[in-house]
Batch of 2 targets.
Target 1
Amino acid sequence: MNSSRIEVMQFLAKQIDQEIDEYLKDIDTNWQPSDFLPESNHPDFVKEIKEIQEQCKELPYDYMAVLVGDIITEEALPTYESWLIDIEGISKEEPQGWSKWIRRWTAEENRHGDLLNKYIYLSGRVNMQQMEITTQHLIADGMEIGTARDPYRNFVYTSFQELATNISHRRTATIAKQHDNLQLSKICGVIAADELRHARAYKSFVAKIFELDPSQMMLAFEDMMRKKIVMPAHFMRQQGEKIGQSWAHFSDAAQRLGVYTSMDYANILDSLIKEWNIGNICKLTDVAEKGRDYLMTLPERFKKISERVSIKAPLDYKFNWIYT
């Protein structure tokens, strides 16, 4: 890796405590999964479980497919932590700096899968064993997102991905509310808020890198968008399937439901270009200038393509996670 990247990462590592204070919450006062679930020692525990099951009965099939897919994605956190800690410029041994950020970020993210997993178990709508098999496959299969160990490309990816998960959880919250499931709506909403804070953090990292190493950061951004951002669970598969086989069906369900669409992809890119002020960054090399030109035209191209994408009709494919 270019030595300038190491220097930039080392310089930014000195500011991590400030980033943690701004973008991550204090553990002792933060919400925990148990705050949103029935207490097992409460006399109304069984009654509250029955209420959850009643509230979940009418949730549509596509919604359940998307919700479970989101849970499986969240539960694959070990993959994401091991990937981030392996980025060039991050020392696994150093207890401060970037490794401190990754541990604290992981600690916040860990609550998401825990909360959703427990809730969906209580719902009575999900075959937990099959969901758990898919989750184990996803962790075992890993992911290939085209970033290698480059911090610049990885932070473009995390900026984009955290915004995408915010949208997905926020919309599952809205749909749950439309079906009068206020408890699930609140659960998805608090998770969406976490994802948005995390997105702001990673976007701030990229903004700082643009100040320190604009041309190389521009080329990394261009490279990631030429490859296209793939979701972290793109290897998702059910029992007996090939790697990635159920991912397309999960994506179709999200598109049909409007939870995460191709237009959202275009809008996220557009927002990042504006956030990082790509059009006005100075002192770029000629190659980086060409990269910038490519990026500036990309959102409209994606939006035009998205307008032609029809929402596919429901398929015969069945998710073995869901009880019908």
Note: Residues 33 and 70 are 16 Å apart (CA to CA).
Target 2
Amino acid sequence: MKTKITYILSNIDKALTFEWIVHKLDEEKFELSFLLLNNKGTNIELFLKEKKIYVKQIYLKSKKDYPKAFLIILKELKKIKPNIIHTHLRDANILGLLTAKFLGIKKRIYTRHHSTFHHDNFPKAVKLDKIINSLATDIIAISENVKNVLIEKERVNKDKIHLIHHGFDLDAFENVEKIEVEALNNKYISNEKYPIIGVIARYINWKGHKYQIKAFKQILKKYPSAFFIFANTNGPNKNEIQELLKNNLSDKSYVEIEFENNLFALYKLFDIYVHTPINKEIEAFGQTYVEALASGISSVFTLSGIANEFVTDKENALVVDYCNSEQIYNAIIELLENQNLQNKLVQNGKKGIKQFNLDLFINKLENLYE
């Protein structure tokens, strides 16, 4: 008999991870279903319907919708009768774990996607994190950083925690059709530009956009034809960051991309990639570290989240200090003027990310589910 697993997700439009899980999880052992908490239709819903995976879209816009959503989840779980529920993100964690606990579902898993954000910015929310921790029978920590926060700051029993790094289809990032890259080039870059410098990070201050933009302003003085691509441009500090862009960069020197479905081709547009969170712990994982190196892009990083575990300065990337525009500028210039260094970083970068291959991730998930 198959083990029934119900994923409960909130505020997710598209996520490659769940597409890969659907493709790779052993369908002879596991039967999947999904409950999606959103205020609109999503790409993941369309994908699941296409794959004939059971999916239920549940309307959720604010906490006012919690009671109704709880009852719908209750009804759905009674119908599905899952052996396991696995939740992702706050609303899904609260409603999914609470409902499953009420129904007596014995295996209740959640994946922890944030690190010290609540500890640093919203101390009251830490109480909610602790309630979620108590409702779960198992917690997936996506990095050593998250594991340490759970154990040291939130006093979670270490036996409850499972360290499972995100997994990636690494070949998909490397082997991208030229025609796909050319299509995005025509879409986002109107004229001949060099260098193309990319940033894929939500507009939230701890991602370090402030320091990147100051560095990019200096880059334009040395490379007037430089072009900057900012992607995934939603977030709580959007207005503030857009104001910084207007005040520091000419409107013809950058483009903002709210959402691009072809992530693989997007990375291939970049000559240099920059990701600079403002401290060691704030990034829970940072999938973009792995994605950029898998795409073969020489990169400038600060060490946060998963980067603490595998990124080494001048070996697979250039590492700069936190909140340091001058070092970001100098690192970009060093890469642009040293092709041998670029080649070395790209080659070592691809070697260093093999630990994040998709099969290893799937195997660890299956072991947990079994």
Note: The mean pLDDT is 97.
